[in-house]
Write a structure and sequence with these properties.
The complex is a heterodimer of chains A (175) and B (666). Chain A is of the alpha+beta class. Chain A has three helices and eight strands, in the order H-E-H-E-E-E-E-E-E-H-E. Chain A has a domain of 104 residues: Nucleic acid-binding proteins (OB fold (Dihydrolipoamide Acetyltransferase, E2P)). With 666 residues, chain B is an alpha+beta fold. Chain B folds into four domains: 164 residues, no CATH class; 204 residues, no CATH class; 101 residues; 100 residues. The chains are: A alpha+beta (175), B alpha+beta (666). Chains A and B meet through helix 1, strand 1, helix 3 and strand 8 of A and helix 3, strand 1, helix 12, strand 2 and helix 13 of B.
């Protein structure tokens, strides 16, 4: 076998594995990507029922209803629009009314969002970033606004988990 | 005072690292071997300084010195001692300090390993390593100073994020960082070779132990992180394809490829340019991982604090090292002489195929991780690339890779014989197929992929065992059929052979564990004391729910008795919800009952008004094999490291260049 044919085989092997990888990526990209939508997006856009998406916003105050066998209903709002959500399972530890939440699932024909995953914040002072951005886009976000300090309402999202909204911390001596 | 000294030590480390960077270059120009020695001394000095700085920060944390910002934000007087220590790296500033500590530790190890590395290569490697240290220490000092003070000092700290108060997470970051940062040495070796314009088997032999060490620790670190996510996050999943997990997986995949290509280079003096490129890519992926996790572009439990200046700084570091090294590669790689030839069907050929699939798999993970970020940056559209994407891209690439693992080992170097290899593996293939189909028949109506996965895992395990048997039996004239002799010869095989077999068997064990998750089942319900919930073959009965007081938390704990369907008691499980008042944060503590390699997993939900509690119960068959397999892989790597070949000094084969003493230094 000549050097040339060896090289050809090598290039062919590289090419075919590369083509396989690219093909798989394109195939997966077309089918398994989930878009993020705010309640306003859902109200404005005509989203086909059955589309898998991520819904983000605040859990509407007073909307949480518990059913039998750990099924729960709640509403997600960005204050302009509200979407009813159904979920069956354990809610995350930091799930509370008035807080940011991201639910992943399917929009049903009746306009109810059936979630199979509910994500809340990792930390007391985080807001899921998508939610914060969506709220900002709706003009419902004020930096250090009325939400400040209250347990669970959280500060602006891209903020240090422990940045001193708490006056007991005092000022940073340097940074 | 100690805190200020620590800060000063860090600044001193910066200065020493600068010396470490400059000296080898100067030495190369002036040809004075004494200057080269300085690089080694500097590497040791930098390590000592960073170690002191790290110890100073640890001291501040252990003594709860709340005049230090970092301690205030992440500690609490009531916190148990182990978490006071792990809290040092449970935050952005401290974890970066740990990063640099490990960076300088590796530098010091290279400096101390006098015989393992030829002096010229060592000096250049230390120079590159010094440059990395300079940049990262600069990053810490300018944007993430862990030693800054608070005036006035508060009386109590904010406590560590309760999710991080866990023994698993106390050791996860050091393990992961040794892995991540360990690849910096492979990178430094590669860049040193490019600067020198010379690379050979001696280089491969020198770089391999470092890569292998880093790889072993990264394997353990990823496994630890995965196990932590499994039991701490309460969702019962062991891998979420979360960007942060991907950030650690990508260097691991590239590092695995690097390990295999250095074997080819060491044995056959081939794949030189490719190996150098892989070493650069592996560390680049570590840096990208650091950027993704630390810059706050991804919100996760790891993004402790996000600050745009840090993100920009890390991005600049990325551009400097990745861009710089790739430019150097493009410029200097053509100088590297091509080495040994081999036929496409040979051990080398199979290792090339291994590298191709690993790199392609790594690329799909990279695309899936970065695509959402790029799309958001360009269009503002927010998308999630979740498990379905990775399952339909990475898995189809991993399966052929796993199929060629035993196959490649059965092929000879230089020119292999497919038929002979197939003959040797016939037993493994046949037994694996029988096992796969038997499991499929036994669980008819269940998942289809899972039995195939079991078959694949069995194939890998048997393939590894056959490899040892084949080597022990010998080839050609020395071939033996006596069992006793095979056993004796097997024991006499080099440790690296056993290490390889063990690591590949570990992969098989992981595959078995993953495949078995196809049969995982779960139950969900609202329970009052006395009521039960079923998942798979087990039933959990709620005995009682009661409050409990921990050192820095209050807990509502539920006790469950696990029984088989027949009613025999298997054991007790406790799951609870902990509330940490200092952070006003609740965390679910899942309860695990281990039965063989399987687990019953209970996770407590909310308390209802009527005294019922929400409970999720999972049955996870053979789930422990996933992490056990990773440990076996790391053990295999460790065993290889103890091989004589790894320890014995490299013969000074390189012809010493005549020192150009005619040119006096200006």
């Amino acid at each position: 076998m000549t050097r040339k044919s060896r090289r050809l085989i090598l290039i062919a092997a590289c090419g075919s594995v590369l083509a396989l990888a690219v093909g798989l990526i394109l195939f997966a990209m077309s089918g398994s990507i989930v878009f993020f939508r705010s309640p306003s997006d859902i109200a404005q856009q005509n989203i086909a029922p059955g589309t898998r998406l991520r819904l983000g916003g605040l859990v509407k105050d007073g909307s949480l209803r518990r059913g039998p066998d750990q099924s729960v209903d709640f509403a997600v709002t960005d204050t302009n629009a509200t979407v009813a959500v159904q979920y069956k399972g354990l809610l995350p530890d930091l799930f509370r009314e008035g807080q940011g939440v991201v639910a992943e699932g399917v929009l049903e024909p009746g306009g109810v969002f059936r979630a199979d995953t509910v994500l809340a914040k990792h930390d007391e002072s985080y807001m899921p970033r998508e939610v914060a951005d969506a709220l900002k886009a709706q003009g419902r976000w004020q930096e250090g606004g009325p939400n400040k300090g209250g347990p669970g309402t959280g500060g602006p999202a891209p903020k240090p988990a422990t940045a001193s909204t708490d006056s007991t911390l005092g000022a940073r001596s340097e940074r | 005072m100690i805190v200020e000294t620590g800060h000063f030590a860090l600044a001193l480390a910066l200065a020493i690292s600068l010396v470490q960077t400059v000296m080898p270059i100067w030495a190369a120009r002036s040809g004075d071997p004494a200057l080269r020695q300085i690089a080694s001394q500097a590497a040791l000095g930098a390590f000592a300084c960073v170690l002191f700085a790290f110890a100073a920060l640890t001291y501040a944390h252990v003594t709860s010195d709340f005049s230090v910002q970092n301690v205030v934000e992440n500690s609490h007087t009531q916190k148990p001692l182990i978490y006071k220590i792990s809290g040092v790296w449970g935050n952005h500033e401290g974890s970066m300090l740990l990063w640099v500590l490990i960076l300088t530790l590796f530098g010091a190890c290279v400096a101390a390993a006098k015989n393992a590395v030829p002096p010229r290569l060592r000096a250049n490697t230390l120079g590159v390593q010094g440059l990395i240290t300079v940049v990262f220490v600069l990053f810490i000092i300018t944007t993430s100073n862990p030693f800054s003070r608070v005036i006035p000092a508060p009386l109590e700290g904010n406590d560590l994020n309760p999710l991080l108060q866990d023994p698993g997470l106390a050791i996860h970051p050091p393990l992961l960082y040794i892995g991540y940062v360990g690849f910096s040495i492979s990178f430094a070796f590669a860049v040193a070779a490019l600067i020198d314009g010379r690379i050979d088997a001696v280089w491969a032999r020198a770089v391999r132990p470092w890569t292998l060490t880093a790889w072993c620790f990264l394997t353990l670190g990823i496994a630890m992180g995965s196990y932590w996510a499994y039991y701490e996050l309460g969702w019962g999943g062991w891998w979420f394809w979360d960007p942060v997990e991907n950030a650690s997986l990508m260097p691991w995949i590239a590092g695995t490829a690097l390990l295999h290509s250095t074997v080819v280079m060491e044995k056959r003096d081939a794949l030189k340019v490719w190996t150098v490129l892989l070493a650069i890519l592996t560390f680049s992926l570590s840096l990208i991982g650091t950027f993704l996790v630390r810059s706050g572009v991804i919100t996760s439990v790891h993004s402790f604090a996000t600050d745009p200046t840090r993100g920009v700084f890390i991005l600049a570091i990325l551009v400097l090292f990745i861009g710089g090294s790739l430019t150097l590669f493009a410029w200097r790689a053509p100088l590297l002489r091509q080495g040994g030839l081999f036929a496409p069907i040979s051990r080398e050929g199979s290792l090339v195929l291994n590298n191709l699939f690993l790199v392609a798999g790594c690329a799909t993970v990279l695309v899936g991780t970065l695509y959402p970020l790029l799309l958001e940056m360009l269009t503002g559209e927010k998308i999630t690339v979740g498990p379905p994407f990775f399952n339909s891209t990475f898995v189809p690439l991993a399966i052929p890779l796993l199929l060629i693992v035993p196959f490649g080992q059965a092929l000879a170097w230089k020119r292999g014989d497919v038929l002979a290899a197939a003959q040797r593996l016939f037993a493994a293939l046949a037994v694996a197929l029988v096992i796969g189909f038997a499991v499929l028949a036994l669980t008819w109506g269940g998942p289809v992929m899972a039995p195939l996965g079991i078959g694949l895992g069995a194939y890998l395990l048997i393939g590894s065992a056959l490899e040892i048997v084949a080597r022990a039996r010998g080839y050609g004239a020395s071939r033996t059929r006596s069992l006793g002799q095979i056993g004796r010869r097997a024991l006499g095989l080099p440790r690296s052979a056993w290490g390889t077999a063990l690591a590949h068997a570990g992969v098989g064990i992981v595959v078995l564990g993953i495949a078995a998750q196809g049969w995982a089942t779960e139950g969900l319900g609202t329970l009052k004391p006395g009521q039960s919930l079923t998942a798979g073959p087990y039933t959990a009965t709620l005995d009682r729910v009661g409050p409990r007081q921990g050192p820095n938390y209050e807990e509502a704990a539920a006790s469950l008795t696990i029984r088989t369907r027949a009613g025999d008691e298997v054991g007790q499980v406790e799951t609870g919800k902990r509330f940490y008042p200092s952070r006003k944060m609740a965390v679910t503590e899942s309860g695990l009952l281990t039965i063989g390699a399987s687990q019953v997993y209970a996770s407590l939900g909310e308390m209802g008004q009527d005294g019922g509690v929400g409970l999720r119960l999972y049955y996870k068959p053979l789930v422990l094999l996933i992490w056990l397999g990773a440990v076996v892989m790391a053990l295999g790597g460790g065993l290889s490291l103890t091989d004589r070949r790894m320890r014995v000094g490299v013969p000074a084969k390189a012809k010493a260049r005549p020192i150009p003493n005619a040119v006096p230094a200006e």
